[in-house]
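Appendix C reproduces, verbatim, an entry submitted by the partner laboratory led by Prof. M.T., so that reviewers can inspect both the input and the predicted structure.
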Amino acid sequence: MISRALFIVAAFAAAFYPTCKAQGYHLAQDFSGPDFFQGFRYNVSDRDWNNFGNVHFISQSDAEQKHMTFVDLNGRAIISVDNTTDGRTDGNFGRDTVYLVSNNPVNFGSLVVFDAVHIPFGCSVWPALFTQGHVWPEEGEIDIIENVNLATQNQYALHTAISSGTCLKQSNDGQTGKTTNGNCTVVPEQDINTGCVVQDASSKSFGKGFADSGGGVFSMLWDAAGVSLWFFERSSIPPNIDTAPDPSSWPTPSAFYPADSCDPSTAFGPQFLTLYIDICGAFAGAPELWPTSGCASAAVSKCDDLVQDPANYNNAYWMINYLRVFESDSSSSSSSSPSRSGSSPSGTASSGSVSAGTGTSSTTGSPGTGGSANQSSAIQNIPIVAYSIVFSSALILVLI
């Protein structure tokens, strides 16, 4: 009797085993090493039309000639602001910087993994890594890394359109970070673009704190459960995150936007990776934020007062080990996946609270100048629970 019971239980286990495995992911896009910049286009603009920054977004040829984008001897991608041009004799001076947009989209069901050693920081500096749809805000935006000035805690955010319906983030459930704004909806004509924001709990997730601790890894999962974002300090990066990531085994995410309060399959179209550095503008230079930024003084009453001095931008650079996009092994057959196709955004888009503007350049001195889960696995866990129930029921019935 016992041997017959074990046989039947084993048969049930074999039948249901495939459904209880963790979701698999395969590498879809790889931005790393000598080819890092080949997957991007340079969004060129003589001014920041969206976020009113004091910058010029320059071309690839100009950025390479001025040593503002390159891959260093360690295989790390460097993206920097001009930190050599002195603009103190020009009252309308704007500084050269770079705005990169990926050639190919990130699709529903994807996992983005980003490993960096240094994120741009400093008074007036506004860096961002985010994804955006071809049509903004109708196809949405997901902010993975963004903050300004001397902040040491990263901010995550979603930006959605009125046409997407209600998208809210009103609690801290399922995340370690703190929700600071709950309305994801963007209304450009009313100048509403804060997005639903979550502040990371770690003081090593941005700025000097990030750089001093050796950097770390950020990840974003966009699937049927919602949008989940993680930050891992260098000492706590999950194994195989760069080659065979398994979000179901990761700890609670830093930020979690559940599907029941914002439908991830309709609020976002195909997303394009965007990396840039802005200066001042609507966020870093916001008059209501500047007095408490840690940057204001009698000599620097507003953000614009800093732009002309190149020494302010010695830490305004990205140093990146890799940026990778993994797609779900089952995403091609998922019935909940959006069927829309996308093309790279053609204009200068907003990010979280983002921009484009005016400048001149070249660089020396700092590395940037070339001087030499659980929530995300909620859907995945259902088959495991179902398997356990069937397994237990089979055993009870056989023994009876």
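Residues 378-399 form the longest helix (22 residues). Additional entries are available on request from the coordinating office.
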